[in-house]
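Hey all, sorry for the wall of text incoming. These are the two entities for the joint prediction.
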Amino acid sequence: MTRRLPPLETLVFAILAGGLLLSVVLILAGLTWEWILQGTLNADHPALSAVNVRGLLESFAAGSPAGLSPLVLLSAGIAVLLMTPYIQVLAAMLFFTFRDRNYRFSAITGFVAVVLTWVLFLR
Amino acid sequence: MADPGFLLIFAISLVAGFFGAMTGLGGGTIIVPVLTYLGVDIKLAIAASMVSVIATSCSSAASYLREGLVNLKVGMYLEMFTVSGAIVGASITLASGQDLLFVIFGCVLIGAAVLLFIRQRAPEREAVDNRDRLSCWLELSGKCEDRAEKKTIVYYPSRAAAGGPLMVIAGMISGLLGIGAGAFNVLAQDLVMGLPTKVSTATSTLIIGVTALAGTGIYLSAGLVDPDLAVPVILGVMLGALGGSFILIRSTNRAVRNYFMVVVVVIGIDMVIRGVS
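and here's what came out:
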């Protein structure tokens, strides 16, 4: 039996599944590249330095300080993974505001979005 | 810090993910203690585990959404409380000494195993319309299909005013220890808000991802997210959890699950002893 999902469920499903898939592809690409370059997966990368997600994304936009490297792909995979639930919350907020016109849940998802924006981008 | 190597961390995470899914406690509850046995700093282990919670949450929530078991409104309402708790919890971890974290982790492991054990024995309650004013105002009621009995169950979440603040504690535990704290989420939704067990389990998978993201933000800004640790943990826990869920759905032997719970309690006791000594 195939069941048709409501629109919000479909949207959230697409974001979660798509984000996870993209993240895993980036991480696997980074690992494969590292294996080809060094013949091992035990490279000693530095911890993602004390930045927030904004800093991480800005380093990709600037081509990364170290240039394109396996670490950049691995970090991009982690960044995409982190952005997935964030985008899901933003999408739900927009859905409740513009599609459902359910302003109670616009406010609830808006609160979660503000807290996440602060912790990920503004701290 | 000891560097156990990619393949070893991956293999351990695979087992932890499997183990976590079989017990219902999540991979983080197993991977953090095991990584500390290998000499990894507990704060780095917690941060890596926290990132892996996001991956397992995305994977399980997507699958539960397709089954129509997630109540998005309940999830999003409760996320308000869990994200706030997670930020507080992660900040406490940054400020705490390692010994204290070992003791807290051990106590939470023991507590979660006992709670799950009790919950397994609690009979599924009939859906009763017992809504308070907040639950009515938020229009949280929903329906899901019971495939075994081939019927649609309509349910009415109640006591939203009490369930929300309780979830601050679940969020705090999650942020503090880098675990999903699904056992605490589900218990609050089951016992306080009266959701059917399947719905609370499914909705909890969505909540833990957003909660873990809030905690991860704190760990990331403290420079505790190490890709060499996070990447194998993410991949291993996610794959292990998929395998564990696959077997759990098909397994009818509760004794196996109880055996795993005993092992979790033993790990918990050991963590407390390590913290104290």
